[in-house]
From TrEMBL:
GO terms for biological process: amino acid biosynthetic process; aromatic amino acid family biosynthetic process; chorismate metabolic process. Its EC number is 5.4.99.5. The gene is aroH. This is chorismate mutase. The keyword Isomerase applies. The keyword Cell membrane does not apply. It comes from Paenibacillus urinalis. Keywords: Amino-acid biosynthesis, Aromatic amino acid biosynthesis, Isomerase. Gene3D superfamilies: RutC-like.
Length: 125
């Protein structure tokens, strides 16, 4: 058994609680589905947001999902680099798994596909 990191990112179109909650849930569901994860195998989830997103804590969207109530979640601000992608939510999910690094599927949705074009091709829409 190994502890692996799974990366994911997405963007929202507006700084609203509804949009942040919707896209956070969508990103998590995609990561869970593609990597066949169960909440019990998750060590922790680190979530960052760009500084232009302050309408909601993305962790709230995850905490409301059945089975995710006890998963440790942490939100933080992304480093504010000039010219960086705006309205972006990023995940680093630490998971216990038998999968190799090559088997892990990172997920980049919406405008966040630009962050890792090398991985976005396999990330879907």
């Amino acid at each position: 058994m190994y502890t692996r990191g799974i990366r994911g990112a997405t963007t929202v179109t507006s700084n609203t609680e509804a949009e942040i909650m919707k896209e956070t849930s969508k990103l998590l569901q995609e990561i869970v589905e593609r990597n066949q994860l169960e909440p019990e195998a998750i060590c922790s989830v680190w979530i960052t947001l760009t500084q232009d997103l302050d309408a909601a804590f993305p962790a709230k969207a995850i905490r409301e999902l059945t089975g995710w109530e006890l998963v440790p979640l942490m939100c933080s601000l992304e480093v504010p680099v000039k010219g960086a992608l705006e309205k972006c939510i990023r995940f680093m999910i630490h998971v216990n798994t038998e999968k190799s690094q090559k088997e892990i599927q990172h997920v980049y949705l919406n405008g966040a596909k630009a962050l890792r074009p090398d991985l976005a091709a396999s990330s879907g829409s």
